Each structure stands twice: as C-alpha cells, then as structure tokens.
Write the structure tokens for this entry.
Amino acid sequence: DADVTQTPRNRITKTGKRIMLECSQTKGHDRMYWYRQDPGLGLRLIYYSFDVKDINKGEISDGYSVSRQAQAKFSLSLESAIPNQTALYFCATSPGGRPQETQYFGPGTRLLVL
Amino acid sequence: QKEVEQDPGPLSVPEGAIVSLNCTYSNSAFQYFMWYRQYSRKGPELLMYTYSSGNKEDGRFTAQVDKSSKYISLFIRDSQPSDSATYLCAMTQNAGNMLTFGGGTRLMVKP
C-alpha cells in the first residue's frame, strides 16, 4: 500500500463550487505539505503543517484553506473554485526539520475547474 | 524573474548518452540543493541532494553545485529509457525552510 495517498485522483468541478482534497499518510511523519504544480512553474507551496496544531501559509495560499484533522490527515479546501485553480495538486510529508530529509509525495490530484 | 530557473525541455537523447540538466538561481542564501525525479502521473521522488558547493556521485548520477555562479547540474551517464521523466531541482536555505523548486526539465531517452 502507498505511504501517502490522495483522494480523489481526478476531479472536475464548476466555478464557485467548494471542494476538498484529502491526504492521508502511514509514514508517521509530523510534517505535511500541500503543493500545486502548473506546467513550467514547478511545485509551489500552498500550506504546510509541522504538527496538528501548527499550520502555516505557503507561497500561494490565497483562495485555499487547510485542516489537519490528525497527524496522518491533511485536507485542502477550495472554498469557491475558480478556473485558474486548475492544476495538479500534491500532498507531501517529511519526518523533520533537516533540509536533506526528503519529502515524500503522494500520487497527485488532477483538478479541472470549468 | 523566478528565483530558480530551469529549461523546460523536452530534452531528447539516444540511449547511452550523457545527459546534463541544469538550474540557475538568484538567492545566494540557498545552501541545500536537491534533484527530484517525477515520472508521468506520479509524485516527485528525491534523487540526490548536496550541501553547499562541490560534487556528489551516486551510481550513474552526479550532482554538481557551483555557488559562485549560482548554478547546479545533474549529470546522467549511460542514460536509459527508464530515465525518461521530468527532473526538478529544489533548494533551501537551512533547516526548517521550505523548498523552492525549479519548473522542471522533461527528459526523453530513446532506445
């Protein structure tokens, strides 16, 4: 079984709809991240959480919110989806604060906002 | 101007070729440099990391950092079709700081 799972894997929604992307991990890591990936722009950080009570905004948090329900679960919400939020979304986890410790990525959620 | 620049490619090479992938960056405070590999429809996975300037070798892969030029490279020797993927560079200043990613270079190795 995958260590980092994301649901759904694909989602089509309409402008103005609220949607939630979910992430679960079995790696026992404290740190979790949400990124979006757009062609040519690489991965950009939306939100990150160092533990259940510590949530921080990333580079592009506007229009997004998150919830850390447990150590293993980190959800990303789009309160009112807009077309420029069409992207590939990745959840990631890491064990601690050393920069050389890798981030483990989920398989991604492909989101299309019409 | 983006903080980390990477040629998007695609870069197409024949099997067995030496591949050179590169990133330039503008923030002189970056100290940790990573290369991630991302297969189609998968999440990125860490390939290599280096600290500060210098070279690091792991099998067919060599990572090189030149901080004076703000330039990092990943070399792949004896490239294989299984190396076909998008390669993302990433970097950070120090512990606790978030990663800044390049846009990724798509590599295609043809049999």
User: Anything to note?
Assistant: Residues 16 and 80 of chain A are 4 Å apart (CA to CA). Chain A touches chain B at residues 4, 33, 39-45, 48, 58-59, 90, 92, 97-100, 102-108 (CB under 8 Å). The longest strand of chain A covers residues 42-51.
